[in-house]
Protein 1
Amino acid sequence: MNLILDRKLLPTSITPLTSRVCRIRYSDSLSISTSDEKENKIEEILFRDEDGIVESLKTLATNHDADIFYVDIWIPVPILKVFYMYMHKREIIK
């Protein structure tokens, strides 16, 4: 995924790092939002740089908050204007 995005934003490991649905979407700014299963927004965090996103994603991967179902990663990567990436247990849907 990082190769497609041409950035080292997403945590990497041989084993899956999260049991949540992660969606990567286009935005002019860097942010992460979390929502419940019905897509009600729980939190939105804005970032000045990509380092902040990396650290927050590591924290979210180990967070056991039962209310969080979706993690949306909003980044300014042009390919995401065409489609978004949806990841859940090693699946990518375009």
Protein 2
Amino acid sequence: MYSSSEHLQVLPDDLPASEPYPGPIGSGNAPLCGTYSEAEAVLRDVQRTRANLEANLDVILRSKSDLDVYGLIDQLAKEG
């Protein structure tokens, strides 16, 4: 078994009070992606995929409700 002291991280003494955790090396205002246009392209692709999935879900739900209605109509026709 391990002791709880194995999980403790020693922080440098020169950290400012407003930043209790050290950031990654080279952190700052640099973008995470290579370029902003790359991020915009990914976002557009995600938005198109989401719109497609939402449209597919609408079709599935409408189809299910149509089946329910037609089943009810068939049942009423058999009774009448």
Protein 3
Amino acid sequence: MVAGSAFIAFLDAFFVSLDPLLLGSVIFYGYEAWQAVQLIRTPRDTGPIYTLVYILLVAYAIGLARAWELLGATRTGLFRALLGLGRERAEASADAGAGSDDEPRD
């Protein structure tokens, strides 16, 4: 009985968190389909091609950010993690340099 109610709670939380993602995906792919129709209707117009390229780049960026998040990144995003990595290395080398001056040598 407990396992069944825990599973129902899991499904409820999963689908509640999925609703905004699903709505965003429908809008995103709907706009992509609209641009594809525009490209088919006017094949010499380059506007829909550029729009589809930008949509593709945004989709890859979202996928990369999501994958980074799923890997357990401790920072809020990929760019902050990369920027923070440089700062952490600089702080670590500064701490290592400061620590060696304080200790007496034999």
Protein 4
Amino acid sequence: MRLFLIAATALAVSAPAFAADQLSASDYVKAARCAGVAEALDVDTSNVDALLKSQRRGRTPYVLNKAFEIRREAKADARRTKASDRSRSEAELSGACAAFMSNDSSQMLAGTPQS
């Protein structure tokens, strides 16, 4: 019985630490959108792809499917825009997507980027 209580206490203490390193579902989907826009503009997506891969575990199928759809739609939308309208997509990458695209994923985990 005592061993059970020790194990339960250890799990309770470690659970918040795991949650603190997890993006919210909406931030996960936002990161997927950023990846789609970046792909369309031929920008390196290795950082955001690594972030999405590391944050995939524990996601519901709904969130994973929504992120896939949003990424695909963002990529298609960014590719459809005329060269003169690319500035909007580029502004999104340098603004709302900057934290997702950075090398330092801890920057993203510290707080939500301002959009």
